[in-house]
Specification:
Layout lengths: L4 H11 L12 H4 L2 H32 L8 H7 L16 H25 L4 H25 L20 H30 L2
């Protein structure tokens, strides 16, 4: 079944930056959809778990390679070509549910692939990295399924974000690359989490 236009407009109002829910908005439409609310709450917890695992890996990179502060590595980052997966559709005035969910789904798939570089870097923590990859794939699948259940069209954007992993020219560049993949993934998850959380407050 298609989602009513009013519901999509409401989603847009709620997710418009800076993430402020609107007082007095007619919330009955979505708050009555128990399946959608269950999806949101379940995947909020899932996203929180993934964020915790990314933070654990960031601590490993800090402890193992003494790479802890982003501002100290920005010059190296310019050489690496590691970009953030885009999520601008989740906090724009022209928000559409299809676009935001599609970007979250696509970004999760991107980071699933990028984590291969972290796996190479931290073979002693392969279990945690592989769990993170599996969780990213599962969350992406959950969102795809929810889009289908809500009758939302799948949107695919031209890939202007991160493409294939760069070929790291040195071990140090690989380490810094791993650092930024995790830092970018953490920021991506924060944005996705805020989007889900505000919808769940209906």
């Amino acid at each position: 079944a298609a989602v009513p236009a009013g519901t999509l407009a409401l989603l847009g109002a709620l997710l418009w930056a800076p993430w402020q829910a609107l007082d007095g908005a007619p919330l009955a439409e979505l708050s009555g959809d128990q399946d959608f609310q269950l999806f949101l709450h379940k995947n909020l917890e899932f996203t929180r778990k993934i964020k915790g695992d990314v933070a654990a890996l960031q601590r490993v990179v800090c402890d193992t390679f003494q790479l802890c502060k982003e501002e100290e590595l920005l010059l190296v980052r310019q050489d690496l070509g590691i970009a953030q997966a885009p999520l601008e559709q989740c906090h724009s005035r022209t928000f559409q549910a299809e676009a935001c969910f599609s970007q979250i789904r696509d970004g999760l798939r991107t980071y699933h692939g990028s984590l291969a570089a972290v796996l190479e870097l931290l073979p002693g923590h392969a279990g945690l990295v592989e769990t993170l990859q599996l969780d990213a794939a599962n969350l992406s699948s959950n969102i795809q399924q929810q889009m289908e259940d809500l009758g939302l069209a799948t949107v695919t954007y031209p890939r202007d974000g991160p493409g294939p992993l760069p070929a790291f020219s040195s071990r140090f560049h690989h380490q810094v690359g791993g650092f930024f993949i995790l830092a970018n993934f953490q920021r991506f998850l924060e944005t996705a989490y805020r989007a889900l959380r505000h919808l769940a407050r209906l």
